[in-house]
Amino acid sequence: MFASLVDELQGLDNDAVTGRLRELELQRRRLDAETAALITLAQARGVHRDDGHLSVAGWLRANLNWSGQQIGAAKKVARLLDEHETVGDAVLSGHLGAAQVGELARAARNPRCGNEIGEVLDLLLEQGEQLPFDDFRLLVRRWETLADEDGAEGDAEANHANRTVSAH
Question: Which residue in 94, 84, 78, 100 sits closest to 30, CA to CA?
Fold first, then answer.
């Protein structure tokens, strides 16, 4: 079956190979956006309970045979696209790839500064489309460093200030 596909593609000239590869990537990005929308919808409706699953993660594992890592990444992306429509639009239109979206989703879940990502999202989306991925990742990580000036030290101070004690 795969061999026959390879044989079929052998008839393409080099420009057609490049064109087909680009077409497939655009389709993948559209499918990624739709998958994220379906995960968001399933979460909101509690679709997972129809099959007797306790969580969307269990539902995804059972229906798609996804790993825990895939589930975690997909849920982060779904949440990002749901919270920031412009990211969903960029993915759906093919302007942003899976790696860039994954990096944005990771940064958006940063407990110390992720809630501030909306303030710079337009710039990050523009750069995500233009920069090579490694440069984009550096940009996002640099933003995180600047947005979280206190870093782990700030967490330690907050933890100390919020400590409580109880005896049983």
Answer: 94
With b meaning 16 or more CB within 10 Å and e meaning fewer, what string describes 12-50?
eeeeeeeeeeeeeeeeebeebbebbeebbebbeeebbee
Q: Are 110 and 151 in contact (CB under 8 A)?
A: no
Q: What is the mean pLDDT of residues 99-118?
A: 96
Output the pLDDT for position 159: 56
Work out the number of other CB atoms within 10 angstroms of the CB of residue 74: 22
- Beta carbons of 117 and 108 less than 8 angstroms apart: yes
Paired tokens of 76: 């982060």
Residues in the chain: 168
3-state secondary structure of 29: helix
Residue position matching structure tokens 């933003």: 143
- pTM of the complete model: 0.83
